[in-house]
Description:
By secondary structure, the chain is an alpha/beta fold. The protein folds into 2 domains: 26-110 and 211-253 and 271-282, Periplasmic binding protein-like II (D-Maltodextrin-Binding Protein, domain 2), CATH 3.40.190; 112-208, D-Maltodextrin-Binding Protein, domain 2, CATH 3.40.190.10. Helices cover 36% and strands 22% of the residues. The protein has 11 helices and 12 strands.
Amino acid sequence: MQRRPLLKFAALWPLGAAAASPSPPLPLVYPRHQALNDPQQGYVTALLQLALARSGQAYALRRSELRMVQTRAMQEIATASGSVDVVWTMTSRARETQLLPVRIPIDRGLIGWRVALIHARQPQLLRGVRSIAALARLSAGQMRDWPDCAILQANGLRLDTSSTYEGLFQQLAAGRIDYFPRSVIEAQSELASHAQLPLALDAHLVIRYPAALYFFVGKHRPELARHIEIGLETMLADGSFAQLFQRHFGRLADGLKLSRRHVLELANPDLPEETPLLRKALWYRPKHY
């Protein structure tokens, strides 16, 4: 008679053990970009993977099957289609209305530091540019769904747009645009990946405006935003965020000779008021600026 409680407990034990076992990782899909050699992807996916590992929830990160422009990826997230769960992109008022931002600039603001790809036969094209009015005489190229379009146009600059990323390099090589402003974290690798085209990197000018590259998720996924934020804040506190950033971009200022360039400051009227500009530790600021 005394064995019955033990037998009853033994019968319940497997169920309790199964409940206590760790749950499988949740799938997390990011978009496959149009760029054949995306210059941001190595850093951003490494950062996201490390942040998720510190979030308290296990995720299995993978890339989408289809290539997508930014607006398509954001629409897939906003409509909860299930094809994409997270995207990294430059913030704007419209994007923060459509999606849920994690307001930690994963690029430390470098998306707003622009140097120009130019045609190789015109290496001195921007040498004498010292004002927005002077730059406005030339035509810049951008993807039509990038927030940079509104920023450049709001500052009075001429703009030609493309529906395809690769098309912009072809337009520049063909002389249909004068320059292609790229962030300092993109320009060198993009030039190298298009070595077959007659392109060069301008050595004279930096175009700078306040901007931030964020992770965005659907508004129906606040727990995902919270997990990413927890992970990033933990990385900021333990120094691993700075270490990863330094490993990927620590030589930018020297490699691009930023201290020798004229800086042309632009306004960004589309920057949301919630941007954490007062958290100085989040933003890149080299010693010579």
